[in-house]
Amino acid sequence: MTLPTTSPTPRRRLHRVWQLLPAQAQKPLRSLLSATGLLPRLQRLVTPGSSDKHGFITLTPETPGALTSSLAHIAQHGPAGDYYEFGLFRGYTFWHAQQTASELGLDQMRFFGCDSFAGLPPPNGIDADTGEFNAGDYACSEAEVRAFLSSRGCDWTKSFLTKGYYDQSLSAELKHRLNPGMVAVALIDCDLYHSTVPVLHFLADRLQDGAILLFDDWNCFGKSDQHGERRAFHEFLAANPGWAITPFLSFGWHGQAFVVHRRMAAIQASLEQTA
Question: Which pTM value belongs to this model?
């Protein structure tokens, strides 16, 4: 019996072509697409399932692996603390972090997820007119995210979602109400400078030596230090000189994770290595 065959869709063909490109060819092409503002659109095209309105997916398939490595490092070396995520999209990485933490025995970890659930705010200021992102990108309602998470067994006794744009939602009142713990791992998927600034301000008094911060869009805006998450983090470190950072891992073309250290602890560690 001859089985019927189906031709791959144009989207699948494009994905296959992209995957066949060598890394040395992908890198300059990404830079060109980023400079012209076409990169986010191409990402959506070449990510399998990204057109599925109802799919429980992540648009950045390397991020879950980076979270697994980060949580495994915390499980082995510490410090104990909570998981934070800013920018959930459909909740896949939030769910993945909880599942991984459970498998690693991080039973005391709580999970705090923050999102507008209305997509990105209008890019303004230094990120305006770059074409990299648009208002409303990556929107998914809170009800949809909760349904996705619940259908996959999310433990709501230790999971907390906060709705709103970060300059309004990440308030002192929120800290008082939820009493989140110190940061063990934080995924900062904010895309824009003006979204990342209040996130870092919110985390400032929850950082601890050895915490891991993952920036999902570190290499956007053509890897410019004058835009997006890069600028926000460089400004944060300049305003908080007591903190030093060590690169931990890169993920995909877009992401970078850092371990944060109290500066004196970092200096002491360096001295011990050279002794």
Answer: 0.77
